Amino acid sequence: MALELRQQLKLAQKLVMTPQLRQAIKLLQLNRLELTAALRAEIEQNPALEEDLGTFDADELAHGLSSTFESTEPGRESDVTERIPRDDDLADTNWADYANNFDSNFSFSRETPPADAPSQFDFIWEKPGLDSYLQWQLAHSYLEDSEWDVALFIIGNLNRYGFLETDIDEIIAKTDSDRDEVEYVIEVIQDLDPPGIAARDISESLYLQLERLGMIDSLAAEIVKNHLPLLQTKNFKELVKATGHKRNEIMRAVNFITTELTPFPGLPYAEENTNYIVPDVYVRKIDGEYVVTLNDDDLPRVKLSSYYQELLESGGDLQKDSKNYISEKVKSAEWFIKSIHQRQKTIFKVMESLLRFQYEFFERGPRYLKPLILRDVAEDIDMHESTISRVTSNKYAHTPQGIYELKYFFSTAIPREGGEALAAESIRERIRTMIQDEDKHKPLSDNAISQKLSNEFDIKIARRTVAKYREQLKILPVKHRRIPK
User: What Cα–Cα distance (Å) separates residue 321 from each residue in 314, 327, 328?
Assistant: First the structure.
């Protein structure tokens, strides 16, 4: 059979996503903070889109949706940006008062700055981390160049807890040094602050801290060096046998270890910023009814630029390319505003549907969460399941019971004898309550929790399922929760 090139005509139907549809889907799955950044970026890129700095309309606020709510009244919005009067200009600032004076002749003994003057340290914007803190201390040590290379390599291999994550052989290979030099540099770093730094494990870290306190021959040092697993499991009976000391002596040593020492010396210097959750939607109970409102605080209100609209309608002396460019940008801005408005409406409808399905949760708490899947909400508001999945991803609701991710309200069903099915989250909440109320001297095992759920709530789940739920709740096993009398 000969090979040849041919041309064929064929009709086919394909589902093609337009750029506008892709943009709408992308906006739908953004959380509130990401949406704010997307709005700012679009305002910068599209000249036909501008921020509305005018006052809120009362009719617009009544809708409780987005600040980008489109008005149905005819006519265009006017440019509300006003010029700042000359009288309102800020007074001239005397920058000499804010000058950093790091002159070598500067002395606080001769010059006393004003009480309200900013300090030079107010201009430091970055918090020093563990690496910089250790290097600052090493600057006062007398290390040779080769030892400095080893020291910097060791500091670079400390994790956020302050533990050394590499062994001596690897340090020797990477720094081209000998064993005596590496061991010496490790000792130098371990003598630095905080105590216990550059240890290989928790046991060594605690032992280094006790050594710094001059307690190397104490019972606490013996426990952390040789019997740390018994301390972790609170097996004080075996500690008495292993050390040969009385129980009260053991308890005093354990109390000193747990209160005066820290297992993770580098954690206070971890360079981590706390990310606070900003809810995308609020559910408030007002006059006995729940009201859903979207969080539009600090969200830019956008509108079409009246200048470009007038320029496009008047035509004037615009060239064809310029007119096409302006027309394209105006259409893009219109579609962007519609996409934002549609996103807000979708979130609003999904939250209202969740409120109907999970009304008992909003009234009484997580224990009354009902089984729910994406299909239930999709059928309720006549949307596709993929849309519901995008809406509920990375978005949070502020409710009378606390702040929860929208995905939290969806939970699989656990069958129950003689009653309706329960949500898995509801069972996890019951397990958490049981463990909180248990006798700390005789805590409940996973098997005991399984039997208690069966006897009191007719919930039949296996012991391994209880263990899985307990691990999801980040609750320790029974042997780690037991407190001896």
Answer: 16, 10, 11
- Identify the band that residue 96 occupies on the pLDDT scale cut at 50, 70 and 90: very low
Distance separating alpha carbons of residues 473 and 463, to the nearest angstrom:
15
Asked whether the beta carbons of 154 and 198 are under 8 A apart, the reply is: yes
Selection from 216, 222, 179 nearest residue 195 by Cα: 216
Residue tagged 């969200």 (tokens): 299
Domains recognised in the chain with CATH numbers: 130-269 (no CATH), 281-409 (no CATH), 414-481 (1.10.10)
At 232, give phi and psi (nearest 5°).
-65, -35
Which value, to the nearest 10 degrees, does the dihedral of the CA atoms of residues 251, 254, 259, 261 take?
Answer: 160
Strands 402-405 and 413-414: unpaired
Residue 410, phi then psi, degrees to nearest 5: -105, 125
Question: Is the pLDDT reported for residue 61 higher than 50?
Answer: no
Longest Cα separation, the chain:
101
Can you say whether the dihedral through the CA atoms of 401, 406, 412, 413 is positive or negative? positive
Token digits for 234?
A: 């609170």
Alpha carbons 149 and 175: distance in angstroms, whole number: 7
Whose tokens are 């407190």? That residue is: 483
Residue 42 to residues 13, 213, 367, 406: CA-CA distances in angstroms? 33, 59, 43, 27
Coil, strand or helix at 89: coil
Contact residues for 11 (Cβ-Cβ < 8 A; gap 6+): none
DSSP state of 196: T
Q: Is 312 exposed, middle or buried (0-12, 13-18, 19+ CB in 10 A)?
A: middle
Reference 152, options 128, 127, 177; nearest CA is 177
Closest by CA to 260, choosing from 188, 226, 225, 212, is 212
Q: How far apart are CA 284 and CA 448, in angstroms?
A: 39
325-371 residue pLDDT tens: 888 888 888 888 888 888 888 889 999 999 999 898 898 888 888 88
Asked if omega into 194 is within 30° of 0 (cis), the reply is yes
CB atoms within 10 A of CB 448: 16
